Automatic annotation (TrEMBL):
The active site is at D11 (nucleophile), D13 (proton donor). Its cofactor is Mg(2+). Keywords: Amino-acid biosynthesis, Hydrolase, Magnesium, Metal-binding, Serine biosynthesis. One of its GO terms (cellular component) is cytoplasm. Pathway: Amino-acid biosynthesis; L-serine biosynthesis; L-serine from 3-phospho-D-glycerate: step 3/3. Its EC number is 3.1.3.3. The lineage of its organism: Bacteria, Bacillati, Bacillota, Bacilli, Lactobacillales. This is phosphoserine phosphatase. It catalyses: O-phospho-L-serine + H2O = L-serine + phosphate; O-phospho-D-serine + H2O = D-serine + phosphate. The gene is serB.
């Protein structure tokens, strides 16, 4: 095994990509405003994430499975996404995604830019239609921390050698846990508490933070 130098773990919606995918799904279901309002409250830390997710997913019941292709076409990486992953790989880092979103879209995003690890939620589909439920573990703030620790351990890294980045309240525990914690175009509560901030949508600025610490 090659000697891994570090690990970046980041959120997906409004961090790796510009959109909140659950909101796009909500728009397709005709409940866009309702879903977006719940998302906003959850990201600010006003709602329990798990409950908020279940409430939003329930509104998607009856959507055809083909909705994932339709929504995927509307997702855009934030500036510098591929460049950041390539540069970190060149420096001997691994890159992981932890998402309160869904494997159905996150796996495809990860494949496009060469991500090493992915943990997201699964939407239940029966007979070609969404049931309005998830299955398996829900990716909560605690699961995000668990994955950061697990992937670091798998690569023989200390937490000091990790970077965690996100925009919402459920990213804060992993931001606090990592050696370098970054708020990315984040909600006020996250900006206040994170040791580092990137306040313009350019992911490559992670490299500026890294280089500034060396």
């Amino acid at each position: 095994m090659t000697n891994v130098k570090g690990l970046l773990v980041m959120d997906v919606d409004s961090t790796l990509v510009q959109e909140e995918v659950i909101d796009l799904l909500g728009e397709e279901a005709g409940v866009g405003e309702q879903v977006a309002a719940i998302t906003e409250r959850a990201m600010r830390g006003e709602l329990d994430f798990k409950e908020a997710l279940e409430e939003r997913v329930a509104t998607l019941k009856g959507l055809p499975e083909s909705i994932f292709d339709k929504v995927f076409a509307r997702i855009h990486f934030n500036k510098g996404a591929k460049e950041l992953v390539d540069e970190l790989h060149a420096r001997g880092y691994k890159v992981g995604l932890v998402s309160g979103g869904f494997h159905e879209t996150v796996d495809r995003l990860a494949e496009q830019i060469g991500i090493d690890y992915v943990k997201a939620n699964h939407l239940e589909v029966m007979d070609g239609f969404l049931t309005g439920k998830t299955y398996g573990d829900i990716v909560t703030k605690d699961v995000k921390v668990e994955k950061l620790c697990q992937w670091a351990e798998e690569n023989g890294l200390t937490l000091e050698q990790t970077i965690a980045m996100g925009d919402g309240a459920n990213d804060l525990p992993m931001i606090h846990k990592a050696g370098i914690g970054i708020a990315f175009c984040a909600k006020p509560v996250v900006r206040e508490e994170a040791p580092y901030q990137i306040n313009e949508p350019d992911l490559y600025q992670v490299i500026d933070i890294l280089d500034g610490l060396q």
